[in-house]
């Protein structure tokens, strides 16, 4: 029983951290790109050397948390459905952030 509680706390911590990361990115990325300071100079190609490791790690963590929630024997006090939806939304937002950077 104690292991289940510890695992549940770990999964929920990952979900909360990912949601916070998503919120932070959704607030900071648009303004960072809107000011034009990151735009390449005329005639210069934008190199995609940046791989955004934190975003990719957040997506992996969210997918793992979602998988754990789906496999769980219980519904976390009725919160599993909302947590799964939050994972899906966070993953979608992070993927949109990565796609936005490719434009």
What is this structure, in a nutshell?
By secondary structure, the chain is mostly helical. The protein is built from three helices and no strands. Helix 1 (2-34) runs parallel beside helix 3 and helix 2 (53-71) packs antiparallel against helix 3.
Question: Could you outline the blueprint of secondary structure elements for this entry?
Answer:
Elements: H1 2-34, H2 53-71, H3 80-102
Report on this model:
This protein is mainly α and 103 residues long. It has one domain (2-33, 53-102). The chain has helices spanning 2-34, 53-71, 80-102. The longest helix has 33 residues, at 2-34. It contains 3 helices and no strands. Residues 1-34 form the signal peptide. This is Small metal-binding protein.
Q: How many discrete domains?
A: 1
Mean pLDDT: 77
Strand elements, count? 0
- If you compute it from the alpha carbons, what radius of gyration comes out, rounded to the nearest whole angstrom? 17 Å
Keywords: Signal
Organism: Pedosphaera parvula (strain Ellin514)
Protein name: Small metal-binding protein
